[in-house]
Inverse folding.
């Protein structure tokens, strides 16, 4: 089932499927967010922004509006 990364709860692992916005695509790819890569949502800030994810072996903080553009599939 395809969801947006911003909808995933802390502790869940998902696989990146695609990006909803081409403008942010290159920036996310440079940070290791490539289609097929597993992502674990590590922490979510109390006000839901930012979120911390583990991708490609390191932690990455994303703004909620960035995470909304990453489409993922649940494992």
């Amino acid at each position: 089932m395809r969801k947006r990364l911003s909808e995933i709860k802390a502790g869940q692992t998902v696989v990146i499927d695609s990006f909803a916005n081409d403008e942010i695509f290159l920036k996310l790819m440079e940070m290791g967010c490539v289609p097929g890569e597993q992502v674990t949502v590590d922490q979510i800030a109390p006000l839901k922004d930012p979120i911390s994810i583990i991708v490609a072996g390191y932690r990455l903080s994303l703004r909620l509006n960035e995470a909304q553009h990453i489409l993922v599939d649940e494992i």
